Amino acid sequence: xxxxxxxxxxxxxxVDEDAVAANRLxxxxxxxxxxxxxxxxxxxxxxxxxxxxxxxxxxxxxxxxHHAVVTHVERVHPGSWTLDAYSRDFPATLxxxxxxxxxxxxxxxxxxxxxxxxxxxxxxxxxxxxxxxVDWDNAVLRFxxxxxxxxxxxxxxxxxxxLAQGAEPPAVAMLSETGAILAWRDGEMPRFRAIDQIxxxxxxxxxxxxPFGGLCAGLVELLGEExxxxxxxxxxxxxxxxxxxxxxxxGTRLDAPEQPLPPAHDA
Length: 267
What we know:
Elements: H1 3-16, H2 19-24, H3 31-52, H4 54-60, H5 62-75, H6 90-97, H7 102-118, E1 139-143, E2 148-154, H8 156-164, E3 174-186, E4 189-195, H9 197-207, H10 212-223, H11 225-241, E5 245-250
Helix pairs in contact: 3-5, 4-5, 4-7, 5-6, 6-7, 7-8, 10-11
């Protein structure tokens, strides 16, 4: 048996408890050792999740969290060279396990996003003082690679903040309308902020290279000229203050986004 065949059989045993692979590795003569390797493998995956989602564990309790971890280890196999990446899909497992308690998956998303932002690449953010003679109609905003976004349906950010501070967390509350949350790293500090759907969609479209002028056109169509321009300016100022923008490029002016922005009452 070649080294590559040996490695493949060991992986098949660890991931799927493949009996055929185990037999090729030595069968009953090495059964006890293979079981030890399997237990160690699963213990490492479990420890990775427990370390990555301490606040989520505190929220749902140790027994429920352990059940979720076991379920995740059984349904999701490692797909990266680094164990740090294994926790990436855990919020999706929690969403499947607790569909009536969406705050659980949202808490886990916050923890995972902050951890990934902390480990993300270093970048230098633009400041307002560096913006001179910008053609805003055609300017394409480039955002920090640590930026991540997802939809938000509960007060999970308030719950997470209370747990992080060792305070009594508030009761779960559903948002009156679906919002969103973004996470990123500002300097050395990972941060998150709850936002509405207008800002959420704006960030998604700008990251897809919609020129800033195209966003402004869409906001004017949605909110009216005065309010639309004001909202675009306010969001730009907030993104600069949050150190989200790393550079400006140029693109072709689009008069409006391909899809309409959310209704004005989401603002």
